[in-house]
Write a structure and sequence with these properties.
six-stranded antiparallel beta barrel, globular, 6 strands, mainly beta, single chain
């Protein structure tokens, strides 16, 4: 697991677009998702911050969600490793096909 979420950046995740990640929340529920967007938000970056604010959008089939409700947990990837604890929230799947569930993690 990463020592500090403040060391993460969009540049770390951009090469993993289209790849599978796993969310594991605090009660042990897991969900396999695909990273579909990695956007930087320079105007939302805190003054003096060492990194530019960014957000990650993940998707999966809404049928696969089961009892995974989002919240605090760990994000893992086969080559990038584990990150957390962090907060992931289910969001509206705007711009995605019917039957898609979307989740977002934001880093300021």
């Amino acid at each position: 697991m990463t020592d500090s979420l403040s060391t993460l950046s969009a540049g770390l995740f951009t090469p993993a677009l289209g790849e599978a990640f796993i969310f594991r929340n605090l009660n042990g529920s897991t969900l396999t998702v695909t990273l579909v967007r990695c956007d930087q938000y320079p105007r939302a970056t805190m003054p003096g911050s060492a990194r530019t604010a960014f957000g990650l959008i993940f998707t999966c089939s809404a049928d696969a969600v089961g009892d995974y409700g989002g919240g605090h947990g760990v994000l893992s990837h086969p080559t990038l490793g584990e990150f957390g604890p962090l907060y992931v929230e289910r969001i509206l799947p705007v711009g995605f096909p019917l039957g898609t569930a979307s989740y977002q993690a934001a880093f300021s």
